[in-house]
């Protein structure tokens, strides 16, 4: 079907965020990744695929502005959190057991606060998305749904955070196994 060609995302939009061995681990996977640039490229790609009609542009502009606002806020908060962690980092071995326990409790409380704020942002994003989605025709809804499915799977793999994409090993086809893997 011709519509499936539209759903193949452009390479630049889905390029894996750069990682290096020096960064170490999944935690640093997106540390220097430019979420604002990535989000804008993704929106540009989606807008082209949706082939929006003039009467749909106001809804697109409202929705896309909200998405970009979220991306900017995410990037600013992530940088502030990295800067704060770097300035307050203390070697765990320099702390007493009660200090380490108190630090863990503080970290969990901060994480809970972040999750609550994130839920508020997601609730607002859901309202914006539903409003925009309602102005799309059936074909555009299909394109929108498939596009975001691809984006989600490219970023996170399946339905949850998993190992970074560069760590996934493709399954070998039957007969492609070397002698060691057959043992």
From TrEMBL:
Keyword Cell membrane: no
UniProt entry keywords in alphabetical sequence: Signal
Residues covered by region (Disordered): 76-98
Pfam families in the record: LTXXQ (PF07813)
Cellular component, GO annotation: periplasmic space
InterPro entries in the record: LTXXQ
Endpoints of the signal sequence: 1-15
Protein name per the record: LTXXQ motif family protein
Species of provenance: Pseudomonas frederiksbergensis
Taxonomic lineage of the native organism: Bacteria, Pseudomonadati, Pseudomonadota, Gammaproteobacteria, Pseudomonadales
């Amino acid at each position: 079907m011709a519509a499936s060609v539209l759903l193949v995302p452009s390479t630049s939009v889905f390029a894996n965020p750069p990682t290096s061995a020096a960064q170490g681990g999944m935690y640093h996977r997106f540390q220097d990744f430019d979420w604002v640039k990535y989000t804008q490229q993704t929106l540009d790609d989606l807008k082209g695929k949706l082939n929006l009609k003039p009467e749909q542009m106001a809804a697109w502009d409202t929705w896309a502005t909200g998405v970009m606002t979220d991306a900017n806020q995410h990037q600013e908060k992530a940088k502030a959190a990295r800067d704060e962690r770097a300035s307050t980092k203390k070697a765990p071995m320099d702390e007493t057991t009660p200090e380490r326990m108190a630090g863990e409790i503080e970290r969990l409380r901060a994480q809970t606060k972040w999750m609550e704020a994130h839920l508020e942002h997601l609730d607002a994003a859901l309202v914006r998305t539903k409003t925009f989605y309602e102005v799309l025709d059936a074909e555009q809804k299909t394109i929108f749904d498939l596009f975001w499915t691809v984006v989600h799977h490219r970023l996170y793999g399946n339905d949850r955070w998993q190992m970074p994409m560069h760590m996934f090993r493709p399954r070998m086809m039957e007969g492609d196994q070397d002698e060691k893997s057959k043992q």
